[in-house]
Amino acid sequence: MACRAGGGWLPVMSQSPTLPDHHVAPDADALVVYASTHGHTAKIAARLAEAMRGQGLEVDLRDVAHAADAAPGRYDLVVAGGSLHKEHHQKELAEWVTARSDALAGVRSMFFSVSLSAADDGDEARASAQRCIDDFCAQTGWTPTRTERIAGALQYREYDPFTRQLMRLLMKHMGRPTDASHDYDYTDWDAVDRLGREIARGAEITAGAGARA
Ligand SMILES: Cc1cc2nc3c(=O)[nH]c(=O)nc-3n(C[C@H](O)[C@H](O)[C@H](O)COP(=O)(O)O)c2cc1C
Description:
- The structure is a single chain.
- By secondary structure, the chain is α/β, with parallel strands linked by helices.
- The protein has a domain at 30-152 and 187-200: Flavodoxin domain (Rossmann fold), CATH 3.40.50.
- It contains six helices and seven strands.
- The protein has helices at 40-54, 91-99, 101-105, 123-140, 161-174, 189-200, and strands spanning 30-34, 59-63, 77-83, 108-115, 146-151, 153-154, 184-185.
- The chain has a five-stranded parallel beta sheet with strand order 2-1-3-4-5, sandwiched between helices. A two-stranded antiparallel sheet has the order 6-7.
- Residues 1, 9, 12, 36-41, 83-87, 114-117, 152-154, 163, 167 line the site of flavin mononucleotide (FMN).
C-alpha cells in the first residue's frame, strides 16, 4: 500500500459516514473537519473532538461536506483529517484546505491521516504514509503545525461487493485478514484520546508517532 508505488488500487466507491455533526459555531475554540469514505475517519474525528471537549474546549465538528462556512481564522486550533484511498486523501478535503491555506497559516493546526499503512510498523509503510501526508500538504499549500498517521480499519461489511472483493485480494497479498464477514479495527483508541487531550492542552506540537494499534 505504498504511496506512489503504483500498486493496483482501483477507484473508491463513495459511501457516506453515518455519524452526525455537532455544530458549536460561532464561538467554538477549535474546529475538527474530516473527510471519510467509509465512516472510520468520522469516528476518529468524533473521538478526537470528544477528548478535546473533555479538556474544556468548545469544538465544532464538521464533515467537510458541511464545512463551507467554517473559517479557520475564527478558531484557536484547526484539526483536519482524511483517509487514504488509492494513495490519496479525499479530494473534497484537499479542496477545502487549498481554499483556506492562507487562513490556516495563521492558526495552530494538525492534519491527521488515517490509513492501513499506518497500522504497519515497518519503515517502508511508515515512510509511505508520511509521503502521502507530505503530498497532501504540498498539493494544498498547507503547513500544519503537526501531522499524525493514525491506523484505520478494514471495513468489509461497509464495502460494496466490488470493493470488498478487491480489498480481499489486496489483503491476501499483504497478509491481512480476508474473512469478509468481519470488520477489523486497527485504531489505538487510547492513543486517539491522548492525542485529543494533548492538542487541546496546547502541548508543544511536534510530529508524533501516530495513534497505531
Ligand atoms: C478502496 C480502498 C483503497 C484504499 N487505499 C489505501 C491506500 O492506498 N493506502 C492505505 O494505507 N490504506 C488504504 N486503504 C485503507 C483505508 O485508508 C482505511 O480503510 C481507512 O480506515 C478508511 O477510512 P474511512 O472509513 O474514513 O474512509 C484503502 C481502503 C479502501 C477501501
